[in-house]
Amino acid sequence: MQFLGHLNRLILLAEDDSDDQELLESAFGEIDPAWKVVCIPNGKRFVAYLDTIADEQLPALLVLDYNIPELTGVEIVRALNNHTRYQAIPKIIWSTSSSPVFKAMSMELGAVDYITKPNDVASFLTIAKYMLSFVKA
């Protein structure tokens, strides 16, 4: 299956903190207003929503909060690893924790990176640009 998510300009965000959601969404929009961010604040609902998307409409990027309710970011990655249709989508886990253990676990399971959430608003733009660097052209 050919990966077409980058053509859809869709990012799925698993995030339950409304401030982090708004700041990251704003940063993606500032980089390119064509990016659409869909935020789901619950891990189980995130996976269920992703399962409803047709193959040709799959997102270009998944950004997963490490500590999201019901399924953590790591548990989401683990669940998605069982489905070949999600393998080509870059998965980034981000968290307020800079724990090397959390990072190692995330990377071991297949996340392309583990990013510590920034403490200042200006850094969201830099992080969003970095996240988009994983999207296949």
TrEMBL record:
Give the modified residues of type 4-aspartylphosphate.
Answer: 65
Q: Where is the signal peptide?
A: none
Keywords for this entry? Answer: Phosphoprotein
Q: What's one GO BP annotation on this UniProt entry?
A: phosphorelay signal transduction system
Entry keyword annotation includes Repeat? no
Record SMART domains: REC
User: Which Gene3D superfamilies does its entry note?
Assistant: 3.40.50.2300
Keyword set includes Lipid metabolism: no
Where does the record place the Response regulatory domain?
Answer: 10-132
UniProt cross-references to Pfam families, sorted A to Z: Response_reg (PF00072)
UniProt-listed PANTHER family = RESPONSE REGULATOR RCP1-RELATED, TWO-COMPONENT SYSTEM REGULATORY PROTEIN
Provide the protein name. Answer: Response regulatory domain-containing protein
Q: Which organism is it from?
A: Filimonas zeae
